[in-house]
Structure formats: C-alpha cells, structure tokens
Amino acid sequence: MPREQFQRGLRDVEDGVLELGSMVDRQLERAMQALIDRDLPLADAVIRDDGEVNRTRFHLDNMCVSLLAQQAPMASDLRLIIAVLAMVSDLERMGDHAEGIARIVLLTQDEPLVKPLVDIPEMALQARQMLRDALDAFVDRSVESAYLVGHADDGVDALYDRVYRDLIAIMTTDGSTIEPCTHLLWIAHNLERVADRATNIAERVVFTVTGMLPEMDVSRY
Amino acid sequence: MSDRVSTMPPRGEGLDLRPRTNGGTEARSDADKHLALRVDHISAWYGKKHAVGDVSLDIEANSVTALIGPSGCGKSTLIRTFNRMHEVATAARAEGHVYLEGEDIYAPGADPTLVRQRIGMVFQKPNPFPTMSIAENVAAGLRFMGIRSKSEIDGRVEHALKAAALWDEVKDDLKKSGMALSGGQQQRLCIARTIAVEPEVVLMDEPCSALDPVATLKVEDLMRTLAKDFTLVIVTHNMQQAARVSDRTAFMLAGDDGVGHLVEYAPTEEIFTNPKDERTEAYITGRFG
Fold first, then answer.
1. For residue B201, pLDDT beyond 70
2. Could you tell me the CATH superfamily of domain B34-284?
3. What pTM, to 2 d.p., does this model score?
4. B243 reaches A (C-beta below 8 A)
C-alpha cells in the first residue's frame, strides 16, 4: 500500500480517538459512582485524572497538525483529520463535565440527599451509551448509526426536563432545599451536555463519510 | 510576411475563424458567451494509437482549469487539441469540436494559425527564441500579426512584461538575450510573449516542472493575476499546484485499452475534499498504484 507511513499515522490517530473516548467513558462512570456512593476519594481521583484526559487530547491535536503539515492529506483523509480535531475537543469537554460532577460531589459532601437518585443515573447511562455508539459509528464509518445517536439525545433531554421539573417542585415547596437542588441540577446539566457532545461526534462521523455536516439536534438548553 | 497576415484586422475588431468561402459556423448562444472554451467530444490519435477518447468539458471565461492524472492519461494530448497543436505532431489527428467563444476551431476553413494566436500555449521547458533579445522575444508575435508601429510594439512589450511580472527585473536589459535569464525568468518571458498578442485563452503544459520552488510560486501567483484578463488551462502532475491555483479540476485516466478518458470534472475544492469517483479519490490520496 503506498504511503505506508501516512496510513499508519491515520490509524494511530483513529486509535487515539477511541482511547480518549474510553478514558472519558471511564471518568463518567467513576464520577457517577462517586456521586451515588458519596465516595470522596473517588471524586478526588476523577478530578486528578482529568489532567490525563487533557494531555491525551493535546497529543492527538499535535498528531493531526503534523499529518496536515507533512502529508498534505486530501479528500477522505483530510475530512477524517478535520473531524478528529473536532471530536477530540468534544471528548475533552466531556471529560470536563465528568470532572465537574466530581467537584459537585466534594462540594455537597455534607448536604442531605433531597430526592432519590433515579433519573440522574439513568441520564448518565444513556449519555455514556450515546458516546460509545458515536465512537462505534466512527469505527464503522456508519452514517445510519450516527443518526441513531442524534435521535437518542431526545431521551436524555426528556429525562433532563423531568429532573428539572421535579427539582423546581421541591425547591418551591421547601426553601431550604434550594442549594442541594441546584447542585443536582448542575449535575443533570453536565450530563445533558455530555449527550449533546456525543451528538456532535456523531455529526462529525457523517462529515467524515459524506463531506456534509448535518445539524442533528438543537439543544434546548 | 504573407498576404494573409498583412490583411488581418487589427485587434479589437474581432478575429474571425469562420471559413472565408462559405457560411459561418453555428450562431453564438447565450450559454457560449460565458464559456471561453467548449470541448465537445474530442478524441485524438497518434497514427493508430488512440490516445484520448471522447472528452467533453466546458471552461468558463476568466477561470483557471487544471488537468491532472497519472502519466499516460492523455492530459497533454488533450490540451494540445484545444489549440490545434496536436495535429502538428507526425500522423496525429483529432476528431470532435472545440468552440472558442462559440466558434468551432475545427470548422472546415478555420485557420490553425489564427487559432493559436487566440489560444496561446506555454510549454514545460522555457523556450525563448535563442537568437532574440528579451524585447524581441515578446514582440515576435506582434510582428507576425503585422503590427509595424514601433511605439505600439514597445508599448505592448512593456505591458506584456508587466503582466508577466517580469518588467521590473528586465526593464534595463531589454536588449539582452532572452537566454541570459534564469529558468523562472525565461518562463515568465515565454508567458509575456504568449500574452503580448492578447489571446483569449492561455494553455500551459506543466509550466513549472522545470522550475525551482521559488520560481514555481511566482508563476503560480502570476496565474491568478492572469486569470483576470485571460482564461487559463494548465496541465500539471503536481496535485498541490492544481489545488492551489485552479478553480476547476479535470481528472483523467487511461483505461485498460490505453485510451485516456475524463473521469471527473468539478470545482477544485470539491475534487480535493470530496471527490465523487473512487478513482479520483484513489489518485489524489496517493493510494493509486
């Protein structure tokens, strides 16, 4: 195969995206675990490990820039590198949302739980599934699978609506719950943004394959 | 000079390619007005060897069109059919039509010499006339057209050298031999010579292949400037060059039968970001071969 070095570079970049995605998924899992178990050392670890997510993102950025500068990629190779640059930015921001959740865990360590955690963990599961599905769509270069990720965002938005209404109702009834309810709302908002970013990644998959960037879902928040 | 040359109308009155004995070629349509060249089912042979098969494409006025493709795809042969240079080669012939501003250059009675004045050509190896000075090189085409006035010739030589971005470098040495210039300067001299006769189209066959990178970029910049006044068609094996300078790109490929065909012709940005044909994709991503 001609351009062996370049092909290797492209494969390394693609592997790097999957590695970063896996790292971010793990961070989200751990952040939610820290929340449910009120596990403060685990929350600390998530915050600390966000540095590794950032370093990996910048390493991938640099790989892409090198490929652009040295290999003059064209057509599908060019679209791949442009898409990867956007994807790793979204993945790094997802990592920030996981870190944000961990920070809230530390912040709320002495607060009572104002409602059982049901919808918020469900949001997290769905958002993480969307992330995994978006990355699968990337590996398979599947436009169809990418669009399914876009549709799944509706489910997460609906859960967020419910969480929001529930928390507003609680806050309206009892003023002393405003602070803890707000913290839970922040967590839910972080998860809603994770789902939006998974949709962004899915849009970039469509761009990689077709050269067109679709607007899959407009966030209401 | 022949009688024919001395009776040519001066520029501005419209050089006519219509046959002198019988009626004209087809009337100009609205569509033709915006096209500098319409290539209509052109095929070309060298003796029995079928080199180019049935190529059609439209070239807009004041655009730069690049022809790309691997060696042997027929791109140099094709470009030479655009100004009837192809038939100069031994046993070479072409079939089909090429309409210049609506007039078929292959119409019976069309004068190939007039064709080549309206559709000029710059070649890969710079070829200034070796026995002439810089000024005489540029003036050569004007004299051939029958222009006698020294002031007009001097004016048009200066204008052409300025348009070719060479004037400042040679204005004090116009009587020096053209061969005394560097490779890049010689090529710009050839460009000046070509545009001095005010063609409508300038064809360039690998114009930078013999030049160093700095000279190449100067000629590339010049191409964009020239496109304001002329229509350019270039053959290049340098894909990055095609990507840099052209508005539209045509990709050619020889089939198993050895005949060169047009595979894809589209805006350059599309060809290099999202080509429709997988053969184009394979070529420009370097997976070819």
1. yes
2. P-loop containing nucleotide triphosphate hydrolases (3.40.50.300)
3. 0.82
4. yes
